[in-house]
Amino acid sequence: MLLAAILVACDQEQDNLQRPATFNDLVPKIQELFADAQSRKSGLGDGPCLGMITAPGLASFYVDVVHVPRQEVDNLEANKCLGYKAGQVGSRLVELNFDGEIVLLK
């Protein structure tokens, strides 16, 4: 019985290692970036770029906070993700509102 449980656990672990990452796998990382930014003394201010996240087999995703509806401050260079703006190959953009909800995926 114990051996059967160990074999099942090993099979499940191997399946997890072979499964390619999807965008949904990155959502917890996106939420963590957002929560970290909220907890900092500077907060979310005018809608900063929160950074970049990656997963094997996926593009790099830049995470940005924007107002909904979009405001002029969201278009300021200081509030944009530089790597995405520069057209870094293989990069995508995720925009979050100030509640941490995904509002755009490019």
Gyration radius from CA atoms, angstroms: 18 Å
Gap between N and C termini, in Å?
49 Å
User: What percent of residues are in strands?
Assistant: 15-25%
Largest sheet, order of strands side by side? 1-2-3-4
Low-confidence stretches are: 2-8
Major sheet, described briefly? 4 strands, mixed
Q: Quick check: average pLDDT?
A: 82
Number of strands: 4
State the domain count: 1
Structure classification: alpha+beta
Helix count equals: 3
Shape: globular
Helix content: 25-40%
Report the order of strands and helices.
HHEEHEE
Q: What is this structure, in a nutshell?
A:
The chain has three helices and four strands. The chain is α+β, with helices and mostly antiparallel strands.
Give the helices and strands, then pairings:
Blueprint: H1 2-18, H2 23-39, E1 49-53, E2 60-65, H3 82-85, E3 91-96, E4 102-105
Parallel strand pairs: 2-3
Antiparallel strand pairs: 1-2, 3-4
